[in-house]
Design a protein that fits this description.
Two copies of one chain form a homodimer. Chain A is of the alpha/beta class and 320 residues long. Chain A contains ten helices and 13 strands. In chain A, the strands form four sheets. A seven-stranded parallel β-sheet of chain A has the order 3-2-1-4-5-6-11, sandwiched between helices. In chain A, helix 2 runs parallel beside helix 3 and helix 3 runs parallel beside helix 4. The longest helix of chain A is centred in the N-terminal third of the chain and has 21 residues. The termini of chain A are far apart.
């Protein structure tokens, strides 16, 4: 069993759930997180564990990162750190070039330097771009439409060349939209915020027909760990997702319902919420199903869990 | 007709041939090149032309690059600048991360800033990795095995997201091995150098069976210009190549023959020359053939032209 795990971005939405699961399974877990999107409150369970270590820091700081690797004697890196706000880098592409790609590249350099051979990577359906069809893991051509998707594809490309050049092994897991406890942003947040300002009307970007699979975060983490433990190629790569999907209109209606309001929904029109958005996305899950995994929670249920969590914790005030 | 062209890496092997062709067709051509692989002697024809301007500089210098865009009023950028020595970055991956990817990213940022909408890009068959099959342009998955291939795939990814975000158009041309006048390195050079040191024996990395298509540089430039002029999608992407192929053994024999020697060839064994090398490569050229283009020169003829040019100019001494 690999004992020492590094999780980059381990205080974040998905990273913190991974941290909890890996600690529960008996691993020693070191988390590095710059707390730009992550939160210390996500690590309340972890911090009671003697096998847990938290380092506040930015993996763009190569010297710090190399020091951590020098001391950590890691077997596997779960590289979760990234910008996760896709819309943000339309104005400034550096957000994703630095925080999504260069972070990955730095982790790979540190692994090379300190002879760490295993990387589990949080990739994304956004690498496929707007294909208009359901895509398998072997889909081509790959023309992402957001800088986030481009940066994740670029990250996959370097992971691949590092695997070949230095004998690394990689587990590349491509996420759809993920929701659930500890989510930090996205349509659900935006809707709740808007409705707190004006409980009578909710403006929704696009025409409400954008439809996507929303995977529940705990299902996602279970799948990541299964893939890591049960596949052993040089590069193991999987779409992760849920076969059910949810429209933006349904999300808006669930938020209004959970808030106990009677707000009118006004759509701005058009089939995209923002530039770089992929409006109707679905992809093939045959490969992960063949491993024996299926999500326990449907897309709609996952969205509703997320809404309830945010409302219960009143996180929309905490968050901004 | 687009009048003002910027060619990055325009003093290099391929870039300088593009420069000559575009000047001959009546365009105004500005070249920026840091002369790390490029040579001023490649621009001897160009420098007599009033429509030509040369700037010695590095496009990693963003301030310089932005100044050039500010003054240039460019219609189209031919982005050729890159590290082209694939084996080099096995030891130091930064060579390709900086010179092959970051250069591209900087060009895209400058285009965004100065509202230049058209980019012609020198991509590569190396984005496909070691597939073992003949690949079309839509092949997936994309797992490059060299940092060079990874950096070119990463570049394509950002070109794609910039196209979507800022209304750019792109012509992505994926090169095989290219040979001919003005080549700066590669197996032919290595063999000539070795034989100048020891005319009796030639050590060849691998077992000599590596087989690849070698495209003649003037055929390549003709294809690039045809694609740029005759396709008009948001992203136009083409494999470029020649259907004939040449083994490393044949190259070694042609070099010995052209040098008038009787050297014995000694193979080091194994089916790869170096880490990141794709030993037997071929890809589908149906898409470029459908545009009405076919190379005039076979792979073997192209290799022989390259050998003769290097020997005639005695470039192996000039080069190092």
């Amino acid at each position: 069993m690999d004992k020492n795990i590094l999780i980059t971005g381990g205080a974040g939405f998905i990273g913190s759930h991974l941290t909890d699961s890996l600690l529960m399974e008996g691993y020693n877990v070191t988390v590095i997180d710059n707390l730009s999107l992550g939160r210390l409150t996500n690590l309340l369970n972890a911090q009671n564990n003697q096998r847990f270590k938290f380092i506040k820091g930015d993996i763009l700081d190569k010297e710090l990162l190399f020091n951590i690797f020098n001391e950590g004697n890691f077997d596997t890196v779960f590289h979760m750190a990234a910008n996760s706000d896709i819309a943000k880098s339309h104005v400034n592409p550096d957000v994703d070039f630095n925080n999504t790609l260069t972070t990955t590249y730095n982790v790979l350099l540190a692994m090379k330097e300190y002879n760490v051979k295993n990387i589990v990577f949080a990739s994304t359906s956004a690498i496929y771009g707007d294909t208009g069809v359901s895509v398998s893991e072997d889909f081509g051509p790959l023309f992402p439409i957001s800088h986030y998707g481009a940066s994740k594809l670029a990250s996959e490309a370097y992971i691949s060349s590092f695997c070949e050049n230095y004998g690394f092994k990689a587990w590349i897991t491509r996420f759809p939209n993920v929701v659930g406890e500890r989510a930090t942003h996205g349509a659900i947040y935006d809707f709740i915020k808007k409705l707190k300002k004006n409980p009578n009307e909710l403006e929704v970007l696009g025409n409400g027909t954008q439809i996507k699979p929303y995977l529940y975060v705990k299902d996602l983490v279970e799948a990541i760990l299964l893939i890591w433990k049960s596949t052993n190629e040089k590069i193991n790569y999987f779409n992760l997702g849920v076969e059910t999907r949810t429209t933006v209109k349904e999300i808006a209606e669930m938020v209004i319902d959970e808030m106990g309001l009677n707000a009118v929904i006004k759509y701005t029109g058009g089939n995209r919420g923002w530039v770089g958005d992929v409006p109707t996305f679905s992809y093939s899950l045959d490969k992960i199903h063949a491993l024996g995994w299926n999500p326990k929670v449907t897309s709609n249920e996952a969205v509703r869990k997320s809404i309830r969590y945010i409302l219960d914790k009143d996180l929309c005030i905490v968050a901004k």
